[in-house]
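User: Hi! I'm working on a homework problem where we have to compare a predicted structure to a textbook description. Could you give me the structure for the chain below?
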Amino acid sequence: MTNEHVEPEFSRPIKLESLGEEGRVFTIDASPGECAALARRFALAGLNALSARVELGWIHQGRRILRLRGRLTARATQTCVVTLAPVAAEIDEEFDVDYAEPDASGGEIVLDMTAEEGAAEPLPDGVLDIGEAVAQQLALSLDPYPRSAGASLAGPPDAVVGPPASPFAVLRKLRPGEPPGRT
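Assistant: Happy to help. Predicted structure tokens:
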């Protein structure tokens, strides 16, 4: 394993000092090359479009929290897990991600996965890549088990239902002199 830094496929870095107290709104669109790179990253048959409109700003709840709120839209092609046929996916998702600095008490961020609100991500140092954040939200929005219309995991209609035959039953048929039906 190397410690190489890998550039995100869809990078839109924003300097946090440029936000001010009011925050800012950004509209970002992936280029065809960025879509192709994201399709490879997420094992998609294709990604035809990805765009997002996001709001980035500070909120205060006893400590500074950076909130990224937005909506992403995408047109992707996934592969059916049953037939391997292409499956079109239209994605239109809203998302919220909070980034928090460590609290003053211990310097650690406590992640409570049972909380109704999502846990905060660690606050980045000076720059937040909103393109990478949108790419991660895209990955979360994809169907993990896409199926084409009518695809089923059921066996063929003539398949025998019941317990499988003993692996020794086949061997018994090959032995001469054994009476049939003996188990």
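For your comparison, note the following. The mean pLDDT is 84. The longest strand covers residues 64-79. Good luck with the assignment!
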